[in-house]
Design goal:
Blueprint lengths: L4 H15 L6 H38 L19
C-alpha cells in the first residue's frame, strides 16, 4: 500500500498549520478554507473505507466463509487465499 493513515494524519496537520497562518487573508484565506474542506471530505471517505475494510476482516475472522463476503469487500489479492 502506497499511502497509510499516518500519511493522511500528516497531511491534515499540515493543512491545519496553513490555516493557522495569521498572514493569510482575504481570497488566499478563502482558497485555503476551501482546500481544507475538500481535504476533510476526502479524509472522511478514506476513514470510512478503512472502517469498512476492518469490518470485513472481522466478519471474515468470525465466520470464515469467504463466499459470504461480497466481492467488493473481500480482503487481499486472492493469491494467498485471503
Amino acid at each position: 500500500m502506497k499511502n497509510k493513515l499516518v500519511d493522511l494524519n500528516n497531511h491534515l496537520f499540515e493543512e491545519l498549520e496553513r490555516l493557522n497562518d495569521e498572514s493569510l487573508k482575504g481570497e488566499a484565506l478563502q482558497e485555503e478554507r476551501e482546500r481544507a474542506k475538500s481535504m476533510a471530505n476526502i479524509a472522511q471517505t478514506i476513514i470510512n473505507n478503512g472502517e469498512l475494510a476492518l469490518k470485513a476482516v472481522k466478519h471474515y475472522d468470525e465466520y470464515g466463509n469467504k463466499e459470504a463476503i461480497p466481492e467488493i469487500l473481500q480482503i487481499g489479492d486472492g493469491k494467498d487465499g485471503a
